[in-house]
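Notes to self after the call with IL:
- keep both proteins in one doc
- input above output, always
- annotate only the second one for now

Protein 1:
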Amino acid sequence: MNATTLKPVLTRAADAETTSDPSSVMTLLADCGTDGSSLTSYRSQFTKGAVGAPAHFHTRASELFFVIGGSLQVLIDNEVKILHEGDLLLVPPHTPHAFAAAPGAEADVLFVFTPGMPRFDYLRLLGRVMRGEASPQEIKESSEHFDNHYVDSPLWRATLEAAQ
């Protein structure tokens, strides 16, 4: 996509698609390649105790986290940090990361992927898997297509176990 095909993208809250699972609601805002968008962005609202994503990395995109409200617990490489309202984190490609609502907190987070690639179908699939409407195998099979590569993180597993 070159600069001449880019145009302003406006997503009205009332018109945005949402997808949900038992512990979060995702509001889909801009998907790369849709209506001229050069990035992908969505907002996730996590309930207390919600696990957002297991440890994974992206090979092509950086992922930006901006905490609108509450607190988010994040794995970055081999370190766990708590992000609070107003905090911003940018995770570069090939960096393992994971996230969940911080212990005892809800989290409202804006996510941005750049360079963008279409990801809304992945988010829809996640919701279906979390609701038991699709198999986790479908996520595994889509890792290359959506640039979402899962990794094992004993630190993240221990962090989540300690929070229970």
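Protein 2 (the one to annotate):
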Amino acid sequence: MAKNTICVWYDKDAEAAASFYAATFPDSAVGAVIRAPGDYPDGKQGDVLVVEFTVAGIPCIGLNGGPAFKHNEAFSFQIATDTQEETDRYWNAIVGNGGQESECGWCKDKWGVSWQITPRVLSEALSAGGGQAKRAFDAMMTMRKIDIATIEAARRG
């Protein structure tokens, strides 16, 4: 296990979530699956308790902690993309697997974890400041999934 690891709480589907992430994002994998050595409030001995996994190079553990805590937008994975094809692939994988669209490049997977699918061209435009940042920002505010061509056109004015 890495020295610093993100712990993501799941009701009971950490292993399924980790497998989905590993199949969807490059530099992702499922590692150890740790089973409960005894009964606990929301599970039984032998149930999957913890899953070690990596998402786009970030070490994580999924904890099957039960229904006590729910995900919200205060935590999200942000995935930088280089092309519309890559943006579409990740967005469609998440939304098409029981997830839901949100605004400005945000979506949620079927486990309630928030994702920002963010084309680098948008980040570059916002970092540039001035009129191009304002135009790109205004264009982004009208979108769900980010459309790179529209951001590039807005950036140019």
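Annotation: Helices lie at 14-24, 84-96, 120-128, 130-140, 148-156. Strands lie at 6-10, 29-35, 48-55, 58-64, 76-81, 100-101, 106-108, 114-119.
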